Amino acid sequence: MVRIPDPTRQRDAERSDAQLDMLHSFAAKLNVLTDTAEIANTITAELRTIVDYHNCRVYLLQDETRLMPIAFRGELTTEYAEEDLDGLITEVGEGITGTVAATRQALLTPDAREVPFSVTIPGTDDDLLESMLAVPMVAGDTLVGVIVLSSLGYAMFDEEDQRMVEVLAPHAAAAFQNARLLEAERDAARAAGALLQLSQSLTARRNVGEIFRDAIESMETIIRCAATAAYVRDETGAFRVIQLHACGNRTTRPRAEIADVPPAVAETLLTSTTSPFVIPQTVAAQVPDEIKIMEGFGDVLVCPLQWEPGEVGALIAVADPDGEPFDEGAVRLARGIGDLTALALGNARRIGELERFHRLVESLDAVFWEAEADGLRVTFLGGRVRELFGDDAPAWLNRGWGAHITDADRALAVAEVRRVIAEGADASVEYRVGAPGGDGRWLRDLVTVVRGSQGPRQVRGLSVDVTERRHAEQTLRESERKYSEAFLREREAAEQLRALDEMKNTFLEAVSHDLRTPLTSILGSALTLEQSRLEMPAADALDLVHRVAANARKLERLLGDLLDLDRLQRGIVSPQRRSTDIGALIARVLAEVENPDGRAIDVEVGLLTANVDGPKVERIVENLVANALRHTPPEAHVLVWARAVDGGIELGVDDAGPGVPAEVRESIFDPFEQRPGPTSGHSPGVGIGLSLVRRFAELHDGRAWVEPRDGGGSSFRVFLPNA
Predict the structure, then answer these.
(1) pLDDT, tens digit (0-9, with 9 covering 90-100), for 370-407
(2) Between helices 159-203 and 328-361, what is the axis angle to 10°?
């Protein structure tokens, strides 16, 4: 009996063989692919060889909630052939694709219209008969994406197709995971290469502007952003744009049109002064328009910089409004860029000075040396080593700097070099050494510290023989002592007389009015009492006595101010800090302040305690209030306020006077300087009250200044740091 082959079975067998061949081929291809787009296109191409579809899409999961189509293949001349991949973006749980991702279960339907949670793609026919097969790609416990096949007609896919795609999906998921890991490694390598290139570039820079330019241009190659900028803080505390860079085809506003960031705004934005941080788009959008560097932006990545005492700045990167937000990786990269930039800025000045220094002294008779900051082990000697240090100079290389100095001078010289290292400031040191032949020589070392990102790392010095100068100075001193003592005494006496005469004139000009006025009043009242032999109404006599007392207090306060100013100038006053209730202190001052016109004084002080010298702070408030009363119209108010700020407290007295011109905002704090143009009926004052305010503030390691008040007038302010 002849067995006739079953065509259906034969076709299924051929199909299984084709599927197995495809899976082997697919696995082999995926093993060598490292790009996600290439992997996705390979999937669509390989499936095409064994499954008859009109549309195949490969989705990858991003941001844990969004399925992004990275490959699309279709041949029919329908709307699908013109499909925009951006229009196919799907959220997890949305439609067939999103549901398969959420449930991690494959879905096979003969008619997509029958699936209750199906969603029609915009631009396609709502009544389109379409079979669909969707299979999740899962690696371990991780959802990687979804493979979706579509075909026009009813039940165009069967369970064999589903099983085949389900077998294929884990291979695809593993390939995508490996590609992402490799891509992350490539990104890290690119970032490391860019950072290395930036480091090499900054090493050659000696100009601050060039360093900032290289830094912000490199940020574009390391961190995905729309624009970058560099800011530097000025003496007022405002941040000014000094470099600006637009990325790609974006545009920024001209730098001349970008206003400085005021201190008040900067304080609200700078959540850290040491580490990079991200300002969310919602917060950044609220800053004033005049300080924005571009129209339309997303998050702002800020990298604070500090490279010298008092030198502060920041690098920023601005994201696209519709782009991805900055992640932790971007913050870490920004820290690396910031560290390199701060190091370059700190080294630029010193290295430039050292290079100029070496060029200048190449022709000098001197010794050049370098030593490690830790331990002072000498690592280099050059120049006239044998002439100044002797033939045995190389022997003390490993013993440390100072071994060549005589015993009498060694301890002080080494201590001075260590102080230079600790403070980071250049200095000169003079000492004696034993030179060849036994003759002692004087050397002068010009010492400088080379700092790195982690602190001092090297000390460099230039040693010059100053023996002849020391001998000449000694001879000159002996000659002056022998022949010029009388002349020196006469010159010193003349200088003292001249200084006293200038002081007398200044003092008399400043205080004559304030001394004469109360003295005249006291004398007039006393003569009236004397002539009346107290035979006058008691009320009149009591009024005269009150006037005598009030003017005597004025004289006492004036003399007290002059004495305090003298003590402060001679440095014989030190603060006696105590925990002090600032609100109660201000209340005491205002209760005793002289306010003859009865001007209104407003107070804004909450619960505020500080570790300060209470009597000195009372004098600060008293002098500021007196100054404000002298320059405020009778109908206006004076505001006294205090608040806690970062690092201490800030006191202020605001007046409604004519204001202080910008050119005299510093000089009005000098002794005997008077603020011009009072609007009140008060006398202009002797001109030492504001000087005492500044001196008492500096006594607390604080400062005093004046700035314009909103609406007119001046705001005198004092910052007192925490002890």
Answers:
(1) 888 888 888 887 777 777 776 666 666 667 788 888 88
(2) 20
